[in-house]
């Protein structure tokens, strides 16, 4: 399965992946998933925006609350191979292992794939699961635009999908388990291949619009400029300092400049802040400190600042009893994660949720260098099979 996925959406120059939602590579992956599930005799459902779930349903318990596993198949721009697809491939492999063991579920066992988890095209992380969970509405989401100005509704329809067909329902889901490559070095430091999640740090994305005055780069004296690039540059440095002092995370990873000319002072710099912290209060304090320093600098530069919260996710504490129960199956450590996941959205929606992490030897993620050793991936499959057998067994 991993060999089948390896070339899809991969850049020949960087080796990274461009699997953007509702574009050709992601559409190919959705077709691959449907074929892989059909080959296993699983019943595949696809909703109006491309979310998919395939069920292994025992006849005697088809109405019982189901156990859902899976992840996502989209990537960040120039991303790694493992973030998302590892959870989908491992779920399929875990079903194969359970059948090898002669296991028969006593309740429905599903494998799900949520669209636009990364938020790399339309700026809303976990958008597919948010819509399914009711955390946002289609009427609000349909008006989102990508970098090329394409509306989300138009992108979905261009991919051959019909939003009016409705969304997947969580009514059938009694428990959700997501396997994911670890995005950090906790398991490396512990020298173990597999762990479980205790919580997700609160995190969000804020758009900072720094407005100034366009002017000539040669004829405009430095003291006469209203340069928003200077305000942005100081803000990026301030974000780094504030996050370091607080032991939190702050990143400006994307900017857009107008008019974007080499010989022109910009009129507008738009920058997106990704901020994460160990608590909701700490996150609010971090973003407020960054915004305060940006405002002060804007006053000195003769520029203006508008800050817009585009998506904010509060802290998620996974079901501690469930984590303790599952950790006992393999004596796995229970660790926090600073990355957002569909599992967090379903947990907030009231679904008992757990996560299985597979060791990442370098801790690098959202990069072509993202990696997991085959032996650790196989250990993750065995762990996931054990977890699913525990949850979907008699």
CATH fold label of the largest domain:
Aminopeptidase
Which structural category do the helix and sheet elements fall into? alpha/beta
Q: Indicate the low-confidence ranges by residue numbers.
A: none
Q: Strand percentage, roughly?
A: 15-25%
CATH hierarchy class name of the largest domain: Alpha Beta
The N- and C-terminal alpha carbons lie at a distance of 30 Å
CATH superfamily of the largest domain: Zn peptidases
- In angstroms, what is the radius of gyration? 22 Å
Q: Biggest β-sheet, characterized?
A: 9 strands, mixed
Q: What level of helicity do the residues show? A: 25-40%
Number-wise, the strands total 15
Number of helical segments with 4 or more residues: 12
Query: Any idea what the shape is?
Result: globular
CATH architecture of the largest domain: 3-Layer(aba) Sandwich
* Rounded average pLDDT: 95
Binding site for Zn(2+) 2: 83, 118, 366
InterPro entries: Amidase_Cbmase, Bact_exopeptidase_dim_dom, Peptidase_M20
Protein name: Allantoate amidohydrolase
Keywords: Hydrolase, Metal-binding, Zinc
Describe the structure.
- The protein has two domains: 2-201 and 315-392, Aminopeptidase; 203-313, Alpha-Beta Plaits, CATH 3.30.70.
- The chain is 35% helix and 23% strand.
- The protein has helices at residues 2-5, 24-39, 85-100, 127-133, 138-141, 152-158, 186-190, 228-246, 280-301, 320-330, 342-348, 374-392; strands at 43-46, 52-56, 66-72, 109-114, 173-181, 194-200, 203-211, 215-216, 249-258, 264-265, 268-276, 304-313, 316-317, 334-337, 353-358.
- Strands 1, 2, 3, 4, 5, 6, 13, 14 and 15 form a nine-stranded mixed β-sheet that branches.
- Helix 8 (228-246) runs antiparallel to helix 9.
- The two termini are 30 Å apart.
- The model has no long low-confidence stretch (mean pLDDT 95).
